[in-house]
Specification:
9 strands; DDE Tnp4 domain-containing protein; 257 residues; metal ion binding; two-stranded parallel sheet; 5-stranded antiparallel beta sheet; alpha+beta; metal-binding; HARBI1_dom
Length: 257
């Protein structure tokens, strides 16, 4: 059974596709909500991971100035002859975007399993009323919990996020929080520790898009492993990898330290 995996730009065409007997899937819309549910966020992440190769191919095409700009309707008749030329040049002179690896099948199985998983940390926070009750958190320096936080390698972090995008943004979030680009010396990186669950912390993180918005990536951990996470950003409930705010906190506390 074939499934059309499309982005949100096709939202007005979903009805037409279904009327034609086609099965299509698309990432969810927030629709004035503050956050996607865990199921929606996991499903959307799964869709974007499948679609990345399409976006990567489009990016290569847009290296040509002709395709990088808006193509007028009057020029559409030439696309059938121009597109094969561009694709031939790309295929001949550029390396493959990716190659199959031995671990690909294992990653696929893991994604399918995580796709159906509930976010237990969100449930823990809600059951104990920890999301909005700031009095249940104390501000400490990261050095007070660092010995109890697991040490991770780059490969460990890659297994956590599946992709490098979040890790690329991790340093910038940490630098902004520490107000310095030198993260190798002693830095002031404060965290909020839960008073009733000592191995539960959250790190207030300013949004990269609005100075007025602060998110609270929350991490549950032992000295051996990360048990789970949750963030109040719009994709923060997903468990199929994590948002950039959580990735930054884990990166700093487990690796950069």
């Amino acid at each position: 059974r074939d499934i059309l995996v499309v982005d949100r730009g096709f939202r007005d065409s979903i009805g037409v596709m279904k009327a034609l007997g086609l099965e299509a899937t698309m990432s969810s819309f927030l629709d004035d909500r503050r956050q996607f549910s865990t199921e929606e966020a996991n499903e959307s992440r799964c869709i974007t991971k499948i679609r990345w190769v399409v976006e990567a191919a489009n990016r290569r095409l847009k290296q040509f100035k002709y395709f990088a700009n808006t193509i007028q309707n009057s020029s559409l008749v030439y696309l059938e002859s121009v597109m094969p030329i561009a694709c031939t040049l790309i295929n001949h002179y550029q390396p493959p975007m990716t190659r199959s690896k031995l671990e690909d099948e294992e990653i696929g199985v893991q994604i399918i399993q995580l796709r159906q998983q509930k976010n237990k940390i969100q449930l823990l926070l809600e059951e104990n009323n920890l999301i909005k009750r700031f009095s249940l958190w104390e501000i400490i320096n990261h050095t007070e919990i660092i010995d109890g936080f697991p040490i991770m390698t780059q490969d460990d972090l890659g297994d956590l996020t599946f992709v490098v995008f979040q890790l690329k943004r991790a340093r910038s979030y940490a630098e902004e929080r520490c107000s310095t680009t030198n993260l190798t010396s002693g830095v002031a990186y404060s965290v909020h520790r839960c008073k009733i669950i000592p191995n539960l912390i959250r790190i207030p993180t300013q949004s990269a898009h609005s100075n007025r918005v602060t998110y609270h990536p929350t991490i549950h951990f032992t000295d051996q492993a990360i048990l789970g996470w949750w963030c109040d950003c719009f994709t923060g409930a997903r468990f199929l990898d994590c948002c950039s705010h959580i990735a930054s906190a884990i990166w700093f506390l487990s690796y950069q330290r």
